[in-house]
């Protein structure tokens, strides 16, 4: 602070000295000009007028330099004043901070219950954190149990579906076996004479399309067996030579005409 005050006072003193010098120079030149004007005549007056112009230019130049130096000095003084103001504000803030810290320290020393209250608050916060942690762990355990229960239920569903498919397969097998038994029982009551005549008619005429369903009914063919017979007849007819078909020796209704005994 003392150094800044010293620099400021020095700038101010220099400014005042320059102003005094400028004023003295102006006054001396004014007096000199007046004396020279009083003594001048004709030719001398022209010479003096020329000298006066030169000295006037020098005076203006010195005045400009002085103004420039004064502006620089003013700016430097303003900067120093701003720095001083900043330092003063910082010093004031520091004093306030120290006073606040001292007040807080004094209050803490005078009220030990405040410290106890802080410790109690911290302890309560820790207990609450522990309680929340236990609740979170319990929720995670419940979630894990629910997940395991869901997996067990999914496994049970898969087992039930597997058993259901097995039951369906067994049911289909039992139904097929039951139909076979029913067909066997029906075959036991077939009139063998009638069956013989139908087979003879089939062999004599070869009318497969008309007599094959009759034979299938008498012998209780299953639908699969009937389809196999029909498919075999059609495939054999399709494999006959074209000449045989054109001669009329074999048709779908006279399939057995191509056999030789």
TrEMBL record:
InterPro entries: GRIP_dom. Residues 45-97, 143-187 form a coiled coil. One of its GO terms (biological process) is reciprocal meiotic recombination. The keyword Coiled coil applies. The keyword Coiled coil applies. Residues 185-232 form the GRIP domain. Keywords: Coiled coil. SMART domains: Grip. It comes from the Eukaryota. PANTHER family: PROTEIN GRIP (PTHR23160:SF1), SYNAPTONEMAL COMPLEX PROTEIN-RELATED (PTHR23160). This is GRIP domain-containing protein. It comes from Triticum urartu (Red wild einkorn). The lineage of its organism: Eukaryota, Viridiplantae, Streptophyta, Embryophyta, Tracheophyta. The gene is LOC125536953.
């Amino acid at each position: 602070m003392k150094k800044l005050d010293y620099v400021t006072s020095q700038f101010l003193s220099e400014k005042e000295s320059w102003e005094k010098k400028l004023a003295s120079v102006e006054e001396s030149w004014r007096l000199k000009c007046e004396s020279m004007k009083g003594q001048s005549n004709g030719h001398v007056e022209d010479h003096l007028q020329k000298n006066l112009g030169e000295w006037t230019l020098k005076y203006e130049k010195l005045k400009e330099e002085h103004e420039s130096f004064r502006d620089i000095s003013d700016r430097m003084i303003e900067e120093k004043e701003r720095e001083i103001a900043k330092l003063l504000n910082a010093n004031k803030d520091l004093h306030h901070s120290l006073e606040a810290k001292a007040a807080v320290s004094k209050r803490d020393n005078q009220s030990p219950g405040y410290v106890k209250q802080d410790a109690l608050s911290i302890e309560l916060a820790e207990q609450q954190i522990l309680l929340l942690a236990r609740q979170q762990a319990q929720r995670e355990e419940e979630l894990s149990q629910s997940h395991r229960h869901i997996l067990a239920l999914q496994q049970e569903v898969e087992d039930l579906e597997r058993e259901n498919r097995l039951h369906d397969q067994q049911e289909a097998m039992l139904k097929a076996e039951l139909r076979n038994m029913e067909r066997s029982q029906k075959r036991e009551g077939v009139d063998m004479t009638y069956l013989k005549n139908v087979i003879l008619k089939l062999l004599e005429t070869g009318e497969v399309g008309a007599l094959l369903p009759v034979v299938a009914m008498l012998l209780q063919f299953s639908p699969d067996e009937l389809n196999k017979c029909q498919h075999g007849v059609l495939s054999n007819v399709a494999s006959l030579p074209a000449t045989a078909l054109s001669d009329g020796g074999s048709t779908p209704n006279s399939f057995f005409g191509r056999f030789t005994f």
